[in-house]
Write the structure tokens for this entry.
Amino acid sequence: MAEPPASHPIAVLYSAETIAARVDSLARGIAQRELWAPLIVAVLKGSFIFAADLIRALHAHGLKPEIDFIFLASYGGGTSGGPVEILRDVQSDITGRDVVIVDDILDSGRTLLFARERLRSKGARTVLSCVLLDKKARRTEVVAADFTGFECPDRFVVGYGMDLGNHYRELPYIGIIETAG
Ligand code: 5GP
Ligand code: MG
């Protein structure tokens, strides 16, 4: 049976307007890299709204990106070093492509590191990365994104595609769950 709707106190961290302005400047930065036939690879599920806005911003900046998805799950929490598992791999031929990985949050760094190595091993020419939020305080891997939307405090955030138990993805802003530490 489905869970009832969740209800936590949520404090707005970045408003819809602030996000839209930042997504546009991220797209401008990506457009300046003069990628050849860029392929956006969005990491599911959390990045789906960010990726949807980003590709339309890329269009506004003159790019014609293709889009594919990789569905990754990591086990054991951010700092325990559990493995990253592929629930659904990219379907495109990556060989020789200029790829931009799009993810919601760079936390421990394990997900981004895994995705980057996966796409490189499939023969990508260039692998860039664009994350909406960077939780620098929690990094355990040596990895940085090429494009970052915002710094993120070491708090649990939801909205704009990001969930708590599959709730709150629909929020148009990014918010902090106030009771979750
Ligand atoms: P990493 O592999 O870098 O530790 O984990 C990154 C993933 O953890 C993100 O793509 C995201 O799915 C999840 N994550 C990390 N912090 C948060 C958070 O505060 N809120 C939500 N909803 N997901 C998070
Ligand atoms: Mg994620």
Summary: The helical segments are 16-31, 48-60, 110-121. The pocket of guanosine-5'-monophosphate (ligand 1) is lined by residues 46, 74, 78, 103-111, 156-158, 162-163 (CB under 6 Å). The first strand starts at residue 10 and ends at 14. The chain has one domain: 17-154.
